[in-house]
């Protein structure tokens, strides 16, 4: 058991829980990420939002041409993580 994580058998409580997606390369994660963003409407925070980030600006949700939404931050590096 991992402290701080819920069991998947329990219903999701959006008032108390934050979903975390741990992307393991070559495991279908990109497909799952696309499904979560495009089909379920979740907002992503990863490297895709990096080109829309301002150095010191506030965080905002940007909508791409395909309809997917991402936070304007690059979570693939320390500077982006600090910005978030």
Mean pLDDT: 84
In sequence order, what are the helices and strands, one letter per element?
A: HEEEH
Major sheet description: 3 strands, mixed
What is the strand arrangement across the widest sheet?
1-3-2
| Secondary structure tally: strands | 3
Shape estimate: globular
Give the helix level as a range of percent. 10-25%
**What fraction of residues sit in β-strands?**
5-15%
The class by helix and strand makeup works out as alpha+beta
Low-confidence segments:
none
Report Rg: 14 Å
The N- to C-terminal Cα distance equals 28 Å
Descriptive report:
By secondary structure, the chain is an alpha+beta fold. Helix content is 20%, strand content 10%. The chain contains two helices and three strands. Strands 1-3-2 form a three-stranded mixed β-sheet, with helices on one face.
